[in-house]
Amino acid sequence: RNQARASISSYHHSPESTESSVSARRGKSATMAAAALTLLLLVLLPAGRALATAAGDAHPGYAGAEADTCEPAPGGAPPYGGGAAGRRHGPALEEYGGGHIVDITHAYRPSMPAFAPGATVGPLVRLKASMEDGSEYNLSELRMECHMGTHVDAPGHMNQAHFAAGLDVDTLDLDVLNGPALLVDVPRHTNITAESMKSLNIPKGVRRVLFRTLNTDRGLMWKAAGDMSYVGFTEDGAQWLVDNTDIKLVGIDYISVAAFDHLISAHVAFFKNADIILVEALKLDNVKTGLYMLHCLPLRLVGSEGSPIRCILIK
Description:
The protein is an alpha+beta fold. The protein has helices spanning 2-13, 20-44, 47-54, 160-164, 174-177, 194-200, 214-217, 235-244, 263-270, and strands at 95-96, 101-103, 125-129, 139-142, 151-153, 178-185, 208-212, 249-252, 277-280, 290-298, 306-314.
């Protein structure tokens, strides 16, 4: 665009004219040509690039959201009062209602780890229209993969038959996603194998279990980089759970329920049947083990095999 303007400008100034009227007409023509060329370039720009120029990727809601990601509120106070000053994104326990409610959902921050070595999710929310820039309203846009941050896997995530059958997040059983749940600590020296599953002695009849692992101890969800050395289920651990327990909801504290070396095989074991729901990247820092009422609500994304999800525990 600048080159086009420079070319037009040089063309305008190079011919010398003795008549001022001719010079004025040429100046007007050059201005009109530059305006027309600018308009043409804007039309031809890719849609995504045009959107980026309309409003920046740095959403104002992110202001201060990264600076407080690892610190508890002063005096351990819960984030009451609202507004940016009430945010608390760190590993401190997030309690509401006098400690009755515990939020176990990670805030969706640009520095949140993505599922790739050293990667972060980057900005997820962009301001399409801004009152500060003269709009009559503020309007944000969300752009993200459906398996980022605290999220749910539907059966079609790694089972094509389930996907083709329409078993998306909109069909997930809310009765499984809400109800009594057991929070357990997994042995720290291992992935979740068949042997470690046996050692947990989870009683028959327990349908929802949240597995806290070495991932929480290492603070992996607070690192601004994906780490593929995370702990997760091995194939034999997943198969043992399917064959020997009544668990229908499996929750874990990193982006994937399956250990990296068993990424596909463990998911396949879980999803052979369509009755198991996986909830990943739960915020289990400083939550005591034991029995809670779990409430998890995904978005009703028709056709999608995954969704962001808000999960809380009721003591």
